[in-house]
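User:
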Amino acid sequence: MRRRVSVVRGSYVVYLPKEWAVEVGVDEVREVFVVRDGRLLLVFPVSESSVELVVRDRSVAEKAFLAAYIAGFDKVVVRGSGEVLEWVVSLARFYGAAVVERGPGHVVLKIVDSEVDLAVLVRRMFNVFINYMLDHLAYAEKPDVRLLEAVDDEVDKLRHVVERRCTKAPSRSCTQYVLIARYIERAADHLVEYAKLSPNGSVARELYEAASRVAEAQGDVGKIFRALAAVKSLSTRLQYSGSGEDLGLLHVVRVLDYLENVLEEFIDLSLLDAERVEL
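Assistant: Predicted structure:
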């Protein structure tokens, strides 16, 4: 199906097929969600979905809310005791949800999504991971584990934001971005565990440099391969220099493994839109 592009007051306009608009319920008062996916532009109808959760303890409440968040629900009705509801409200606000109704034994939450590109979300994850976790681990006289755990929560949140975005507006690159978000989140988890084991400052600084190279490689095939070689080389050197009983080293190697996985997904992203990739 081909459409002619019109120019209206300096903006480009493409008319949507009427059959599609009728089928999905789009009209002049309903919004659509426009997503850029490389060279593609995807259009999704915006619709509000809701779910009701009945929870009895904090553990279940957290899992249930996160499941609803990732599944893309816009309104979440939670029923439970006062203490559990307060915990859910605190968690929901951390994820950007607002309380729109509160009553005896229930609370209604409204989730409003910010329109952020997946590539921007990944760069934000790397910024938090490198500048607020690795930097602290590498240069602080004594790492603050509680601080790192709090920052790790922010990395977890960004991973779930990526997952929610891909649930609501799936695109070709979602598989890669969901995996990248998971790999960064898992690397952050291992970094927290490493911080609990009297980490080696020089090793932490090498991790900082390696992660920085990985982040800078996003979208540049040449940098991706150079970063991949550097990460593999560092991992091999550290493994040969350490002991199999060194638990801290195992966490460091796992961080490098996940960074390597990120680079492999960067390669796949580069291939999605590349007409020709020169190696």
